[in-house]
Amino acid sequence: MMKKGSIQKVVMKNGSQVLQFDVNVLLDEVIVQASIPEVIKQALSGSVTWQQRNETSLARFLAGSSQFPAFILALLVCDAVVQLDGGQGEMDLNNYLLSKKRQQAAALWIPVEVPGRKVAMAKIGLTPAGRGIVIAAAGLLIEDGTVNGARLALSGVWPNKHWLSTAADKLVAAPLSEDSIQAVVQALQEEVDPPSDYLGSAAYRRAMAGVLSRQVLEACG
Amino acid sequence: MTNITFELNGETCQVQADGNEKLLDFLRGLSLTSVKCGCREGDCGMCTVLLDGLPVRSCMLTAEAAQGHQITTLEGLAHNGELHPLQEAFIETDGVQCGFCTPAQILSAKALLDRNSSPTDDEVREALSGVLCRCTGFVQIVEGVQRAAAVLRGEDPGDVDLLRKVLPEDLARIDIPEDHIRRRGERSILKPILFTPANTPPTNVVGRPERKVDGRKLVMGKPAFTDDFSRPGMLYGAVLTSPHAHARIRKIDATKAEALRGVHCVLTYKDLPRVKYTSAGQSYPQLTPYDQVSLDNKVRHVGDRVAVVAAETRKLAQKALRLIDVEYELLPAILDARDAMKEGAAVIHDEDDTEAIADARHNLVHRLQAAVGDVEEALQDAELVVEGVYHTPKQHHAQMEHHLCMSYWDEDERLVVVSATQVPFHVRRIIAPLIGLPVKKIRVIKPRIGGGFGGKQDMLLEDLCALLTIKTGKPVNLEYSRRQEFTSGRTRHVFDIHYTAGVKGDELLALDLYVLADTGAYGAHGLTVPMAGGFKGLTLYNAPNSRFLCDVVYTNTAPAGAFRGYGSMQCMFALEVLMEEVAEKLGIDVVEFKRKNLIKAGEPMLLAAQMGEGTEGIPQTMDTSGHEACIAAGMKAMDYEAKRKAFRNQTGRYRKGIGMAAVFHGSGLAGLDMGACTLKINDDGSFNMTIGATDIGTGSDTILGQMAAEVLGIPLDDLIIYSSDTDFTPFDVGAYASSTTYVSGGAVRKAALEVRRQVQVHAAKMLDIADPESLVLKDRKVIAPNGEYVTMGEVALSSLHQMDQHQIMATASNVSHKSPPPTAAQFVEVTVDMETGEVTVDRMLMAVDCGRVINTRTAAGQVTGGMAQALGFARSEETVHNDQGRVLNARFGDYHIFKANELPVMDVIFVETNDPSGPFGAKSISELTIDGVAPALVNAVHNAAGIWVRELPLKPERVWQALQDKVG
């Protein structure tokens, strides 16, 4: 855990800026980057302690990520990409996390400045910094008033490793509106399959999936 | 073994270590006792150290992680005895209560200040959020960090005293500074305000923010807690606990465990005589059924004791536990108190050797009744009758230091038990028959305690630890793991509360209270907790017609025990919500309704004669009450009336609300609690003060010292205070029932007065003064009316060596036949998210009358810490089990207590009264502070959202469901 990792800023052809984090970088080094999106800072503070950030490298996070659900969601809606070790190319973070046998990662690429992209996150927890009962995050790419990319990620509403909602696809190629958000929220109610536990029943989680998704999508508008 | 080279507190360190050993154990093995163990699961942060200047949890890293790095522990901060500014500041602000989390808090703060010399309060809270604290509520810790930051920046941090004001006779003129009203929602920490009546006699040491007498060793992380002490050849014990809620042990075979090399002893029920006891650390005779034996052939809850082993290492002890074969016959379990008395329900205590269970066949431990007036008639006569049914949760103490003890034979073949206990003298008495030794052969030592809150008022491990020492002849260290704390420790009693109030005009005519109390698998505090709750839950309003009925039942859940608030906070919650409901139905102002009906100074407490500590009580009168002043001060500081109006008829997603609760408590157990103190003079005019009173982190050693110092005219620093050791300190019942300040303080004052008399007599001879009483003790001098004086040191040398030689000393005991109630008004302001049910607590303020405030700093810490614990009870904390009785949240990560970055703004106001029976006019404080948050919170939520939530805690879903139900 204590190897030093490197951080580089890369400017892409479309003007986007990406931070490239060596997987030895600690989570605390991620959060202190001035240009890191607010949603990632939000995900790595509050319920994540300074100690956890100092002990956890990106490699360790990628190997066993379940204890940082908000960070996963934040990275997903920011379109983070995993650079594989040994020149094996790149992989979308969602695919990487879902792969049964994860390949060794070399770096994590986090787009930090993307023209037209808006991201937001909301959480309901037992206490303000407690473990999330339901967390929702949205990332929309809005160009000339049209949604050209949409990601809606949730935790606490599916029984297994599953974060991205397909309902968000309904937003693409149209302007963001109350109606389009309502359509997503409605579809989401069908899509989720929440567990039930002492933190919240399935019915509550399902309701909150809608409430929080609406909230984060409206925040992106 | 691996060679590890690293820098430890600035020195190069080369050692051989088991590379897989936890860094925590490795560092403690190097005698770095500041590195505390709170959970071993990465949840509590007690084991925080700095690795290359950054905080990490040493229980989550192996020793190998230190290789090539710089490790800093608290031992590395002070140089040549000079404390780091953070250490100084933590003492000055009383950021140290029990001190168990202090090393980790200070190290986290140091890392922050090294990175950011001017952090905001929120940044400090975020940096500290990885280290739990159950005592302080974090206010004085954050103050400490900011104070140190100022010092490190070269600034003057100012004084640490509170804001002192005179209490006006006309309470409408009570003066709250504008910034304390926080009209714009400011979050900065403000000094508490102290209102003192104009005629209060001046004092020199009492009433001052004196530094805690044990502060220095705690901020330096010196060995002070039970686990910091070791003995040559010490074995490590471990307890095998039941995985089943209710079962009979059909077969138990420890052969394989015993055969394991390095295992010295395994004990099961077959190895021990069947001696009945109750674990409740209470005065003799304990009135609850003796329904336990050290190890039984039946288990009655998940976590019940099955066997115990002693081995050469902790790891080996755990391995041995896994080798014990147990065959259980599973029995039906009762997990809900409402099922316990049903016909045909499983009988939890079917053994034939437990006496004094009211109705064992129906799991009814006690049926309690008391009444004054005629409730039935009064309810018929009432113009309005309001009923309310309320439920309170199974809260866990969550103190940072586990239950643990160490036992050994001393050189005189007496058994010594060092224990993290609140009740050393009771422990000695309780274990004697269990281990087959007379009391005179047992010595119990209480070192510093890492928080108790009532959880350490039970004897949980000392018998087994002692038995292991007796069987092996060796020192043994025995502790519960953090998970066992949740399953085998004690909890708050779950109460189902049914109140009926009858009102005529705006007068409360009748109050009828029924409580169904769940004592869990054993009845330890099952008599006294509900009795205390019922008494206070009826006496706060002292209705002329009051009735109490309570069924206390067994269930197959972890035993309930003593817990700060002791039944009162459950009943206060229900009562203060009920009063709000009544006032609303009457259409009158709730504060006015409460003011009119609250018990007043001079009134008899109608049920006091019937409801004592599990038995008949003593008639008592309410001698003083600060309710009027507390309510007035709190309302002004909260801008209560304006907000109440402004928060009506809100619309939108987020709605604000404000609520109030009036509460009171007691000060010790009238006619039962006894404390004692011995004072003796030393050659230099200093004094040894030995007390049986048990400081569990509240600062009682300090405030008791202040009382003695005040009487003797010396600085606190001239007292060497020691508590408590059954061999060397006089008796005290221990730290419970809010008795220490009032009862033990009374003993200290008496002892000090007698010593003062002896000093005066001797000094009068030295000064050739006829009237010793004319001499004044002040500033370490004994001063005659003519201005001549001798120093205390001269008196000491003269009396010990020269003239009329004798030891100036005195021992005094104190019992009070009163238990004067401290009073308070609690305010809570919230924001309710109408879509999610999430309740954000924006501000809590408590205006407290604890009589005379003895130490303004420690008292303020009691208030903020109490409010923080109460917020957990009200808002989020609950031990949850599945349908097999297994606890689902048996670790801090799942149970979740409020962290530094989650707590709201907390303000404290003191309104002093002068209790005629209390030392210097003092009453108690600690338990009072926990009583009011829950009802004030529920009332605030009602103010915001128009719903009544009568079941705690206010988890988001519970509030959301109530909102859904309201909409229909």
Q: What can be said about this structure in brief?
A:
Chain A is 32% helix and 26% strand.
CATH architecture of the largest domain in chain A: 2-Layer Sandwich
Radius of gyration of chain A: 17 Å
The major β-sheet of chain A equals: 5 strands, antiparallel
> What's the tally of helices of chain A?
8
The greatest inter-chain interface is formed by: A-B, 31 and 42 residues
Within the CATH hierarchy, at the fold level, what is the topology of the largest domain in chain A?
A: Uridine Diphospho-n-acetylenolpyruvylglucosamine Reductase, domain 3
> What oligomeric assembly is this protein in?
heterodimer
Task: Outline the low-pLDDT stretches of chain B.
Answer: none
Largest sheet of chain B: 7 strands, mixed
Structural class of chain A: alpha+beta
Helix/strand-derived class of chain B?
A: alpha+beta
Q: Helical proportion of chain A?
A: 25-40%
How many helices of chain B in DSSP terms?
25
Strand order of the largest sheet of chain B: 10-12-8-19-16-17-18
- The CATH architecture of the domain at 226-331 and 397-488 in chain B is Alpha-Beta Complex
**The CATH H-level homologous superfamily of the domain at 226-331 and 397-488 in chain B:** Aldehyde oxidase/xanthine dehydrogenase, a/b hammerhead
The residue-averaged pLDDT of chain A reads 93
| Average predicted confidence as pLDDT of chain B | 97
Q: Report how far the terminal alpha carbons of chain B are from each other.
A: 67 Å
The gross shape of chain B turns out to be globular
Explain what this protein looks like in three dimensions.
The complex is a heterodimer of chains A (221) and B (968). In chain A, 32% of the residues lie in helices and 26% in strands. Chain A is an alpha+beta fold and 221 residues long. Chain A folds into 2 domains: 7-113, Uridine Diphospho-n-acetylenolpyruvylglucosamine Reductase, domain 3 (2-Layer Sandwich), CATH 3.30.465; 117-220, CO dehydrogenase flavoprotein, C-terminal domain (Enolase-like, domain 1). In chain A, the strands form 2 sheets. In chain A, strands 1-2-5-3-4 form a 5-stranded antiparallel β-sheet. In chain A, a hairpin with a 5-residue loop joins strand 1 (7-11) and strand 2. The longest helix of chain A is centred in the C-terminal third of the chain and has 19 residues, at 202-220. Chain A is globular. The relative contact order of chain A is 0.13. With 968 residues, chain B is an alpha+beta fold. Among the domains of chain B are: 2-76, Ubiquitin-like (UB roll), CATH 3.10.20.30; 226-331 and 397-488, Aldehyde Oxidoreductase, domain 3; 674-815, Aldehyde oxidase/xanthine dehydrogenase, molybdopterin binding domain (Aldehyde Oxidoreductase, domain 4, 2-Layer Sandwich), CATH 3.30.365.10. In chain B, the strands form 8 sheets. In chain B, strands 10-12-8-19-16-17-18 form a 7-stranded mixed β-sheet, with helices on both faces. The termini of chain B are far apart. The relative contact order of chain B is 0.12. The chains are: A alpha+beta (221), B alpha+beta (968).
